Amino acid sequence: MPTTQSPFARNIIICLAVVTLAGCNKAGDTQSAQILDSEAQAAADEAAAVARAAQAHLGTSMSDDEILRAIGADPAKLKLTRTDVGNGYIASYTNETTNIELTRSASAGISVSRMKPADQQGKWFVKPKSP
């Protein structure tokens, strides 16, 4: 025997379904917005690092020592740990007060990250020369 629903009950069920579906869509929109925000932040961070490298007059033909001096570090006071990777290397320059990581590759350019001292933290990025 079929049951009958009042128009009020049917409207409540329809409203709940619409709200539920709209909420699901909003969650997807929020995730998409977060992904776009993180991509935009990454692009802004890279642009700032490129500008900082240009301001320090960094170039792909510079030696690591020249780059370190350009960002205010004394290479003679730093210990080098180097790891070869792909078509380049990662060089860590450290002492008790300084921590700088320099990554160099023909295809990716030069990336410098200074983690210590805290008041001199920064990132520099030199894009590779075009072929």
Description of the structure:
The chain is of the alpha+beta class and 131 residues long. Residues 15-19 have low confidence and may be disordered. It has a 5-stranded antiparallel sheet with strand order 1-2-3-4-5. The chain is built from 2 helices and 5 strands; from the N terminus they run ααβββββ. The chain has one domain (7-131). The radius of gyration is 27 Å and the shape is globular.
For the largest beta sheet, what order do the strands appear in spatially?
Answer: 1-2-3-4-5
Quickly count the domains. 1
> Outline, from the CA principal axes?
globular
Number of helical segments?
2
Largest sheet: 5 strands, antiparallel
Number of strands: 5
The computed structural class is alpha+beta
Low confidence ranges: 15-19
Q: What share of residues is helical?
A: 40-55%
Question: What is the fold's blueprint, element by element?
Answer:
Elements (H helix, E strand, L loop, with lengths): L6 H49 L8 H7 L8 E7 L2 E7 L4 E7 L3 E8 L5 E5 L5
Antiparallel strand pairs: 1-2, 2-3, 3-4, 4-5
What labels would you give this structure?
single chain, alpha+beta, five-stranded antiparallel beta sheet, 2 helices
What is the compact description of this entry?
The chain is α+β, with helices and mostly antiparallel strands. Helices cover 43% and strands 26% of the residues.
